[in-house]
């Protein structure tokens, strides 16, 4: 069942370069409501867990190092057709192939340091949102 929610992270390079505001503005202007939001730094262990599906890929070790190299901003977003529409808004994984008007086209530096994460399915949006926010429910 589509939940109309997706999950995003603003990655360490974009946080380091002061693009939190610019990226959140593109997200809001893209029609997404920010449901939950926080800035945190992942340990290498937690980054490894988050990207566990990629552990056999050649870039996994570098990705874990990069994603734990500085703070990230995690958010749950809401919109009709959220998962697919957010993938459209962020653009291709490799910024060299990202369409004009996408977040990665504007802010990504490389295929690894590509500014933002976006969930690839409703199930993963739920799992990834819970990874950061499930323990916050007492608020
Ligand atoms: P996605 O973020 O567009 O869904 P995935 O294939 O799920 O792309 O890869 C997860 C993340 O791993 C990417 O966002 C990027 O940071 C990194 N990554 C993907 N492919 C490569 C690569 O070929 N070299 C280095 N890093 C990569
Ligand atoms: Mg992915």
TrEMBL record:
Q: Which is a GO BP term held by this UniProt record?
A: UTP biosynthetic process
- Give the enzyme's main class according to its UniProt record, as a single word: transferase
User: Which annotated residues bind ATP?
Assistant: 11, 59, 87, 93, 104, 114
- Provide the reaction this enzyme catalyses: a 2'-deoxyribonucleoside 5'-diphosphate + ATP = a 2'-deoxyribonucleoside 5'-triphosphate + ADP; a ribonucleoside 5'-diphosphate + ATP = a ribonucleoside 5'-triphosphate + ADP
Top-rank taxon, per record: Bacteria
EC number of this enzyme: 2.7.4.6
Q: Which Pfam families match?
A: NDK (PF00334)
Q: Which cofactors is this protein said to need? A: Mg(2+)
Q: One GO cellular component term, please give it.
A: cytoplasm
Q: Where is it predominantly found?
A: cytoplasm
Q: Where does the record place it?
A: Cytoplasm
| Annotated InterPro entries | NDK-like_dom, NDK-like_dom_sf, Nucleoside_diP_kinase
What are the positions of the active site?
Answer: 117
Query: What Gene Ontology molecular-function terms does this entry list?
Result: ATP binding; metal ion binding; nucleoside diphosphate kinase activity
Q: Where is the Nucleoside diphosphate kinase-like domain?
A: 3-137
Q: Keyword Kinase on this protein?
A: yes
Please give the SUPFAM superfamilies that the UniProt record associates with this protein. Answer: Nucleoside diphosphate kinase, NDK
List UniProt keywords, sorted A-Z.
ATP-binding, Cytoplasm, Kinase, Magnesium, Metal-binding, Nucleotide metabolism, Nucleotide-binding, Phosphoprotein, Transferase
Q: Name the family.
A: Belongs to the NDK family.
Its biological function?
Answer: Major role in the synthesis of nucleoside triphosphates other than ATP. The ATP gamma phosphate is transferred to the NDP beta phosphate via a ping-pong mechanism, using a phosphorylated active-site intermediate.
Q: Which PANTHER family match?
A: NUCLEOSIDE DIPHOSPHATE KINASE (PTHR46161), NUCLEOSIDE DIPHOSPHATE KINASE DDB_G0292928-RELATED (PTHR46161:SF3)
Subunit-structure text: Homotetramer.
Q: What is this protein called?
A: Nucleoside diphosphate kinase
Q: Which organism is it from?
A: Hymenobacter elongatus
Q: What is the lineage of its organism?
A: Bacteria, Pseudomonadati, Bacteroidota, Cytophagia, Cytophagales
The coding gene here is ndk
């Amino acid at each position: 069942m589509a939940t109309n929610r997706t999950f995003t992270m603003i990655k360490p390079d974009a946080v380091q370069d002061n693009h939190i505001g610019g990226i959140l503005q593109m997200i809001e202007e893209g029609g997404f409501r920010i449901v939950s939001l926080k800035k945190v730094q992942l340990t290498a262990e937690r980054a490894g867990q988050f990207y566990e599906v990629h552990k056999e890929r050649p870039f996994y070790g570098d990705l874990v190092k990069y994603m734990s190299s500085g703070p990230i901003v995690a958010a749950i977003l809401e919109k009709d057709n959220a998962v697919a529409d957010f993938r459209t808004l962020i653009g291709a994984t490799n910024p060299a192939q990202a369409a004009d008007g996408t977040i990665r086209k504007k802010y990504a530096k490389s295929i690894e340091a590509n500014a933002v994460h976006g969930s690839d399915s409703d199930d993963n949006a739920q799992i990834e949102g819970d990874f950061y926010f499930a323990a916050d429910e007492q608020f």
